[in-house]
């Protein structure tokens, strides 16, 4: 998909551009992820796998699928990984650092991945959400996603996250 530009909810942010990330941007993506997931440190049980990501694991994920990167006024503002799995485009680690939140960037990243899924012939989009984050489950439900499966991390007796899907 080609790069797209739109104005966020606040003019102080300037134009936001979405484009697919290159391998040379692994460090940028890692920094965005660390900034976005820092608030979950010591909160999520089990801890988020985002804390163990490295530039090398990011490059590996880019090679397996890709990522969309948001740029706000010349500054990296968020990203999301995507990868084709079982006929669906899997969206992973959608990350928007706190300074860029509530400006529509997360929604635009999600819309980009959905459009990429449509144009690639995927049947829809799948993502995972922690049960400890019901506000995020509710947000995705408002965007048309439905819980399709309860999942349990290794070593846990009860479900810890859900898969959600939006089919086209």
Features:
168 residues, alpha+beta, Aminopeptidase, 8-stranded mixed sheet, globular
Descriptive overview:
- There is one protein chain.
- This protein is of the alpha+beta class.
- It has one domain (4-125): Aminopeptidase (3-Layer(aba) Sandwich), CATH 3.40.630.30.
- 28% of the residues lie in helices and 33% in strands.
- Strands 1-2-3-4-5-6-8-7 form an 8-stranded mixed β-sheet.
- The longest helix is centred in the C-terminal third of the chain and has 16 residues, at 105-120.
- The two termini are 18 Å apart.
- Residues 6-11 have low confidence and may be disordered.
CATH architecture: 3-Layer(aba) Sandwich
Number of strands: 8
* Number of individual domains: 1
Low-confidence stretches: 6-11
Question: What's a concise summary of this model?
Answer:
The radius of gyration is 15 Å and the shape is globular.
Question: Topology of this protein?
Answer:
Layout: E1 4-7, E2 15-20, H1 26-37, H2 55-64, E3 66-72, E4 75-85, E5 88-95, H3 105-120, E6 124-130, H4 134-142, E7 146-151, E8 161-167
Parallel strand pairs: 5-6
Antiparallel strand pairs: 1-2, 2-3, 3-4, 4-5, 6-8, 7-8
């Amino acid at each position: 998909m080609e790069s797209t530009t739109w104005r966020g909810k606040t003019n102080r942010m300037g134009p936001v551009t979405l484009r697919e990330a290159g391998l040379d941007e692994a460090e940028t993506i890692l920094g965005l992820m660390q900034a976005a997931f820092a608030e979950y440190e010591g909160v999520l049980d089990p801890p988020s796998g985002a804390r163990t990501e490295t530039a090398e694991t990011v490059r590996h994920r880019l090679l397996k699928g890709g990522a969309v990167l948001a740029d706000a006024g010349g500054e990296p503002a968020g990203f999301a990984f995507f990868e084709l799995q079982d006929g669906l485009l899997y969206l992973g680690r959608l990350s928007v650092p706190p300074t860029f939140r509530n400006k529509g960037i997360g929604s635009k990243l999600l819309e980009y991945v959905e459009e990429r899924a449509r144009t690639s012939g995927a049947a829809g989009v799948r993502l995972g959400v922690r049960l400890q984050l019901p506000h995020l489950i509710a947000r995705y439900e408002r965007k048309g996603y439905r819980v399709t499966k309860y999942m349990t991390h290794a070593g846990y007796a009860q479900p810890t996250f859900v898969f959600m899907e939006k089919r086209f």
